[in-house]
Amino acid sequence: MRINEIFYSLQGEGFYTGTPSLFVRLSGCNLKCPFCDTDHLPYTEMTEHEIIEEAAKCPAKHVVITGGEPSLQLTESLVDGLHGVGKYVAVETNGTHELPQNVDWVTLSPKDRFVKTRSASIVLSRFNEIKVVFTERGIPSEYTEIQADHHFLQPCDIGEESRNAEILRSAIAYCLEHPIWRLSLQTHKLIGVR
């Protein structure tokens, strides 16, 4: 598998914010989002066995498979292997490809409104949480219809402090007007951890 990096930190976003987690970042993505803050292209080839060995060394039970887009490489056998060493497997996906059925937690972070191609269409139908990158344009109403246990708005970090503050204010106002949504901040950036 093409591994961009493996590191141990706190989950900074969504439902599991603050949870000690091993992050397995896979390389490559099928979308080119204009605000992406991850250089997910470099990689090291690792076998599933090597990935599982690295995960087994980590004291945390929680493993987050992210990217890039993890659905391009993630296999049922890797998830089984992580379960075999006592791990709980969460995946962060743009929802444009199927995932193995044995994943424990699925976070949808849809990007279809930022990337106008057929490859951006969401094909998955059920998620534990949806985490929408929020800009001043609000969010498409169909995101409210997505079957998820938890709905989060995450203000888009565009790298400009005054505009970020405006986006945050707009996201707060949107949550107050549409209480199905909860605010998710990128707390890892706020507290200075990876």
Written account of the structure:
The chain is an alpha/beta fold. The chain is built from five helices and nine strands. It has a nine-stranded mixed beta sheet with strand order 3-1-2-4-5-6-7-8-9. The radius of gyration is 16 Å and the shape is globular. The mean pLDDT is 89.
Short description, anyone?
The protein contains 5 helices and 9 strands; from the N terminus they run E-E-E-H-E-H-E-E-E-H-E-H-E-H.
Would you spell out the secondary-structure blueprint of this structure?
Blueprint: E1 2-10, E2 20-26, E3 44-45, H1 48-57, E4 62-66, H2 76-84, E5 88-93, E6 105-108, E7 126-134, H3 142-145, E8 147-155, H4 161-177, E9 181-183, H5 187-191
Parallel strand pairs: 2-4, 4-5, 5-6, 6-7, 7-8, 8-9
Antiparallel strand pairs: 1-2, 1-3
Helix pairs in contact: 1-2
